[in-house]
Amino acid sequence: MFYGGKGLGLAPYGSYWRNMKKLCTLHLLSGSKVEMFASMRSEELGMLIKSVDKAAVLGEVVNLSEIVGEVIANITYKMVLGCNKDSDLDLKGVIRECMNLAGSFNLADFLPWLSIFDIQVCINI
Prior knowledge:
Its cofactor is heme. It is found in: Membrane. Keywords: Heme, Iron, Membrane, Metal-binding, Monooxygenase, Oxidoreductase. The structure is a single chain. By secondary structure, the chain is mainly α. The protein has three domains: about 1-35, no CATH class; about 40-85, no CATH class; about 90-125, no CATH class. It is about 60% helix and about 0% strand. The longest helix has 21 residues, at about 40-60. The radius of gyration is 20 Å and the shape is flat. It starts with 14 loop residues before the first helix and ends in a 15-residue tail after the last helix.
């Protein structure tokens, strides 16, 4: 799941980590890349404000956490995948599943000889 510790977050500090940081800083998080998506972000926020305004006029209750989460998901889909949210790919569900797997209890971590059975105990807290 974490490519053997080769990602930026889990790689040990060294030349590889510095090169990954440089790559992310120059190509993914540069000012020009962030500025390139400014119009898309303002468009999504404009739609958010319109939907909240419409709900306020109708006197409806609004769950801001859900709406803001959807806006963030829409922006992420457009920035990362270059398309709108697709019903076939549930990115939020995939991230949630990865977080559950990363945080779940693995019996083989404490009893290494059990790793031959590949026992994974998932505990959702």
